[in-house]
Amino acid sequence: MDKPKAPPLRILFIHANSSATAFYQTLSENDEKGLMFDTEGDTLANTFSADHGHYSEGFRQAFQHESISYTRRKDREYVNVKRPRLSAVLSGTPRQIQNLITDTENGLFSRFVFYRLPTRITWHNVFAKSGDGSINEYFANLGAEYLDFYTELKNAPNIVFSFTEEQQDKFNAVFEELQYETVLRCNVDIVSSVRRLGLVTFRIAMIFSALRMMEDGVLEEALSCRENDYENALHIARILLEHIIGVYNTLPHVSTPVKAPADARTFSKQKFWSDLPPQFDTQTLLQAASALAFAPKTAEKYITAWCKAGQLVRVAQGKYEKA
């Protein structure tokens, strides 16, 4: 008799300490999909640094579903994961980020989004009770609800998601401004993070739109993003960019600083000026700066320069008028 083949390992969650072979094999045997959750970012960092755990490039390729190929020596088998889909959520300290992502030139940096949580020196009542049931029951019920919707989506025809033409135009304008402004604040090696944040923003809007179908109970084959979901996705992107910049500033920079092109600086500054009304106060100023992802200090610098040049008049405390 021929030796029977081992059945595929059906497991959705991939351990962060998996070897490279185990990581690729798990993706291959689970419809090219996998999830990774770990409360210690060092676990993945230590795996990447080990001889058996060199699959950092697999992480980078999976971000945009690029094919991953590998060979198993045991059976001399060539495996091609055509369209990997991987989501990873890691938590840890700032130092653990540096262990995982050595510098800003590391390709992993632009493929992660970051959210920094400040430490609050408060003590919570560890014996307090709120609501009925445990947290495990809450998430089990929530998971069952989303599983039903996932099954419904999986059995439905393919859904095409898109932005409207107006949303596309605004999306391009917003991210062009964000790219210019971020280069001015940081350096050109952060450009890849801004560009991939654009893809992340599109995915967030797509998730919002899918959940909207779950609320409405109607599946649409051609799904156009609602305006509120679109604006919320952009708002989240601007916040995430600030956190990305915060992490960027803590990592070593390998490349030589490159001065941003003059036309980019001029374009951003002129756009900020044109967005301000003839008369405005500090709140309007900060709103206009936020729309262009300007830091408050950058906006204040421009205001001071315009006042000195006579283009702007400070008519009262916190109130300005264009000359």
Could you characterize what this model shows?
By secondary structure, the chain is α/β, with parallel strands linked by helices. It has three domains: 20-100, no CATH class; 135-248, no CATH class; 265-322, Winged helix-like DNA-binding domain superfamily/Winged helix DNA-binding domain (Arc Repressor Mutant, subunit A, Orthogonal Bundle), CATH 1.10.10.10. The protein has helices at 20-29, 41-49, 56-63, 94-100, 135-155, 165-185, 191-216, 227-248, 262-275, 282-291, 296-309; strands spanning 33-38, 68-72, 77-81, 85-90, 160-162, 222-224, 279-281, 312-316, 319-322. It is globular, with a radius of gyration of 24 Å. The N and C termini lie far apart (92 Å).
Please summarize what this structure is.
By secondary structure, the chain is α/β, with parallel strands linked by helices. The chain has eleven helices and nine strands. The protein is globular and about 90 Å long.
SSE ordering: HEHHEEEHHEHHEHHEHHEE
How many DSSP E strands?
A: 9
- Biggest β-sheet, characterized? 3 strands, antiparallel
> What percent of the residues sit in helical stretches (DSSP H or I)?
40-55%
The residue-averaged pLDDT reads: 87
Q: Report the structural category.
A: alpha/beta
Total helix count? Answer: 11
- What sort of overall outline do the alpha carbons produce when their principal axes are compared? globular
